[in-house]
Specification:
10 helices; Leucine-rich Repeat Variant; mainly alpha; about 55% helix; about 180 residues
Length: about 180
């Protein structure tokens, strides 16, 4: 391809495939970020990684995602700050929510519960999946409120998360039968 930007699905799909998920990603690039949207409150290393997660080169974007992923709990404060400040960047909010879910830490729960109220359905659905990943029993009541979400992807993700957390379904139960 040329030097121009690739369409967002081409950028986001390798990340989703690599992380063993096939989420519905937003189909357009976000508008240019204003200074209010930049994650200025995060440590410089993470600011650079968050910027590189939006790189049009999927290899560079995946490498930045993985660098944050490998930091697990150490990245949580920066992920939360980035999530809070990235109001106009749906893809970055989605990736932050996904990384919070992969952190394995209960410290991510308040931010993930808050992300259930995001204006973008793909972010809300990913928040449901991330709460499922963390087996967040304390978040089941919040997940239940999204069983009536206007978006069918969010309703499905909330239902699957509740079933998995309560031990009545999900990926772990399917693996146990093998």
């Amino acid at each position: 391809m040329g030097a121009g930007l690739r369409p967002l699905p081409a950028l986001a799909q390798p990340i989703a495939q690599m992380k063993n998920r096939s989420p519905k990603m937003p189909t357009i690039l976000s508008p240019a970020r204003s200074s209010h949207d930049k994650p200025d409150g995060v440590r410089p290393r993470y600011k650079d990684l968050f910027d590189r997660m939006r790189d049009p080169d999927p290899v560079a974007a995946d490498a930045a995602f993985d660098a944050v992923l490998f930091d697990r709990e150490g990245a949580i404060p920066d992920l939360i700050e980035c999530l809070d400040r990235s109001k106009k960047d749906t893809v970055l909010r989605f990736l932050c929510v996904q990384l919070l879910g992969f952190s394995g830490s209960k410290l991510a729960l308040p931010a993930l519960v808050a992300a259930l109220e995001d204006k973008e359905p793909s972010v809300r659905a990913e928040a449901c999946r991330s709460l499922e990943d963390l087996k967040a029993h304390d978040a089941v009541s919040s997940l239940r409120t999204h069983l009536d979400d206007l978006d069918p992807e969010v309703r499905l993700a909330a239902a699957e998360a509740i079933l998995a957390i309560e031990g009545r379904g999900g990926h772990d139960d399917a693996d146990a039968d093998l």
